Amino acid sequence: MSKKHLFQFLDSPRDMPPKVPLAARVAGSFDELYGSFGQAEASHQAGRCLDCGNPYCESKCPVHNYIPNWLQLVQEGRIVEAAALCHETNPLPEMCGRVCPQDRLCEGACTLNDGFGAVTIGAVEKYIVDTAFAQGWRPDLSKVKPTGKRVAIIGAGPAGLACADRLARSGIEATVFDRYEQIGGLLQFGIPSFKLDKAVIATRRAVLEGMGVHFRLGVDVGRDVAIDELLSEFDAVFLGLGAYRYTDGGLPGQELRGVLLALPFLVQNGRIVTGGDPQGRPIAGWETALALPDLRGQRVVVLGGGDTGMDCVRSAIRLGAASVTCAYRRDEANMPGSAREVANAREEGVQFLFNRQPLEIVGDGQASGVRMVETQLGEPDANGRRAAQPIPGSESIIDADVVVIAFGFSPRAPQWLEALGVQAQANGRIKVGGNGRLPYQTGHDALFAGGDCVRGADLVVTAVQEGRDAAASIARMLRGVKAIPAALTAA
Ligand code: FAD
Ligand code: SF4
């Protein structure tokens, strides 16, 4: 056990676990980038926490983890208790520790993130849960009394898995359906292995199955089984459908050979990297599986600066591209992608072109470049974001053999929901709560929804939070609470 002193952060710098060497990454390694702390390093890093008394980190964490408390337990070597405490707020802590943009969330709010270096909260969270699982610890449900109630969950992404975890802890039997043959949603098929090793998802599946959660995989609800069947077989249904409608920039030349959409590119590559069938079932909304082009020696340009764009550039580097450029229409400070991922991409050799807006993909049958215009930032728009305004006369062509379009995603509520009284907004988001409904309850009493299909494409941790809180609402509904007074609900 390492001994804490209040000013440990002055003597010990912030440190992350070791990374896969750069040479291996650029030579094609898709291994998870960050290694693990040992007990001594984890304890040392946890000991940097000031216990400042006003844990901004907790407030900024979307699931409100008890961060200083589990950092203290790590220092004392009480890993199993730390793991149990992590799970009190977060059904998937080992995933969030790996993929949360901590620089914008918990670590960004750490009191030490002011010249001293924030506590490495995400890496310690990952250490706690990986270590406890490796030691054989599993959530203890021995005191849970079965209610006899059964709930179907559509979607085995983070929202669906978090919901299943909480239902199981409430004595409600959860059965998770997914059109894919593995659980995880975008954790499995979108996020590359260098950010999240897929063995982590397999471990979580075993943990959930041990808690009594059932999986019915390779089942597309609406095609292989009707929602009405689920509503008659189960007491309630949770929709964790995700957001898969890609933002179409309408660029001339999008149809040229060598132009790829980000998600099919990542999905197909992910299947190959993990030894799966590269011709497996195509991703939702795209009718054909993608024949992945050989990127070796190619000049790759990725359009878009979000997490998806960062995953594309870093995958292209590993696939042997001669050059990889990321073009984004705003400046670096306004980039949506995590600063840590941008730094890793730079380290791996990605070039960034900020303040560039694509106008057209040029080429004759095959893409040969992207015509871009330079931009400057104007006044903030309705969402407070400063709009990128083209600068007349600043157009130029960036050479490219392969262009990857990564403009983001929005949800599309399936048609079969309409007949059930479930409403969606014009942007495709399923409407929940308000007007006396329980939180996350749709217009149909027995249908609840959460994650990207409700909030639009966002983060793993926000999907986890919504799946967790929707399960609490489902449990209330099953206990007979029909609605809450309109005066107490948000409009
Ligand atoms: P999803 O993860 O999309 O899961 C939805 C599931 O529902 C899917 O498995 C789908 O097959 C299933 N489904 C849908 N309809 C049906 C149906 N009718 N029948 C059966 N099954 C159905 N977030 C981060 O926090 N950090 C990151 O680093 C990060 N990187 C990302 C990288 C990429 C490339 C992408 C695309 C997203 C990334 N995100 C990241 C965002 C994050 O992955 C999502 O916000 C999160 O996965 C949403 O969870 P969800 O459960 O709502 O949906
Ligand atoms: Fe930070 Fe995400 Fe963990 Fe919350 S869940 S403490 S935001 S890494």
TrEMBL record:
Domain of life the protein comes from: Bacteria
Q: Which residues form the Dihydroprymidine dehydrogenase domain?
A: 29-136
- Kindly state which keywords UniProt assigns to this record, in alphabetical order: 4Fe-4S, Iron, Iron-sulfur, Metal-binding, NADP, Oxidoreductase
Boundaries of each FAD/NAD(P)-binding domain copy? 150-467
Keyword Cell wall biogenesis/degradation tagged: no
- Where does the signal sequence lie? none
* Cofactor(s) of this protein: [4Fe-4S] cluster
A GO molecular-function term, please? metal ion binding
Q: Which Gene3D superfamilies match?
A: Alpha-helical ferredoxin (1.10.1060.10), FAD/NAD(P)-binding domain (3.50.50.60)
Protein's name in the database: FAD-dependent oxidoreductase
Supply the source organism for this entry.
Thermomonas brevis
